């Protein structure tokens, strides 16, 4: 019977065939241990010389890394394997012999591995990170579907900017100018007025010249938008969503977290509600912590975010930022016109901002004024303003950066390992 590695627990004691690649092997004169992978998982195949044909044993001993095979054998329990099972191999059919696979079990530099990303994805750690990414996506759809949200897909090609004009990728759209989307938000606001609660999940593009461990040029964002929801309620949705995602990974990715040596005790603690600190208090806290240069009105860099996060063992919301350093669409605090109703959610352990969100302006005149102050004249000036012209309501939304969330939950240092084919400042290959 043909099966997959993920399914072998159902075949205990049975003879099965698995299509696989050879990840690694070790052998002596009498026995060969094959580390096999088939995409669904990893399993050890044990080939005992005295129990197989001479041809099979020679093949097992001499097979090269990443050769593809059909292996047939009996599934037995193995308490030493993290997976709990191994295969006692009876026969091997070589499908294709791989010659000189470039990624060997020795250490390679990051640039080398990045140049071989199309192959590096096969390795155990990269496989675990992508499985966690997949679980985060699954748990995201589950959370929003279970809570009455409709998935809406905003366009990728747009005629104007959503966040700020400096980071736009420009292209021609026949005779017109077009830009790759940096956020679907403005379209999601239109969708919220049509469907109430909506979310999107798609690629976004930022032509920023940033070369940090948190920045990608192309990254994926989850953007919920909710009509009749004010700032405080939006924060509750965010903390419930992030808790659900973290708890789902803990439950469904035990093996992968183990492969990555992730300290899961830190993740176990991530349960709503999350702490909140105002921007004003964050400035005071930073000054106490020795950042004497920072002034009210300045944006935070990675060291500031990390210093604030240090005081909490959960993600922390930094709320009510100065109006002048945030996007034009954020609603001013009704008690103070120098700050806006917004929050950044900062992940623990130095992973930085994973969510940016806010209550949106719902007053037509104020929105017109903000557009003019920012010199925004694109086509959205017309259609976006029409949203507050016809039945405007309080509404809020947020964007969660998938790759930073994967990096944090997986415990990997750099976002380049959290997306299958990263687009970085100096990388468009492979
Ligand atoms: O804070 P940002 O720029 O917010 C927005 O785009 C809003 N329009 C979202 C909304 O309210 N619907 O981006 C949101 C999140 C950040 O918190 C971060 O996690 C991620 O997107 N992000 C990036 N991730 C990787 N590389 C980059 N260059 C990123 N820029 C933002
Ligand atoms: Mg932000």
In words, what does this structure look like?
This protein has 430 residues and is α+β, with helices and mostly antiparallel strands. It has 13 helices and 19 strands. Strand 2 and strand 3 form a beta hairpin. 37% of the residues are buried. The mean pLDDT is 96. The structure holds 4-amino-1,4-dioxobutan-2-aminium adenosine-5'-monophosphate and magnesium ion. Magnesium ion binds at residues 344, 353, 356. Residues 162-163, 183, 185, 206, 208, 215-216, 219, 221, 223, 353-357, 397-399, 401, 403-404, 415 line the site of 4-amino-1,4-dioxobutan-2-aminium adenosine-5'-monophosphate.
Task: Please name the CATH topology of the largest domain.
Answer: BirA Bifunctional Protein, domain 2
Number of strands: 19
Summed over residues and divided by their number, the pLDDT gives a mean of 96
Portion in helices:
25-40%
CATH superfamily of the largest domain: Bira Bifunctional Protein, Domain 2
| Number of helical regions | 13
Low-confidence stretches at least 5 residues in length (pLDDT < 50)? none
CATH top level of the largest domain is Alpha Beta
The biggest beta sheet is recorded as: 8 strands, mixed
Radius of gyration (Å): 26 Å
What best-fitting shape do the alpha-carbon axes yield?
elongated
For the record, the CATH architecture of the largest domain stands as: 2-Layer Sandwich
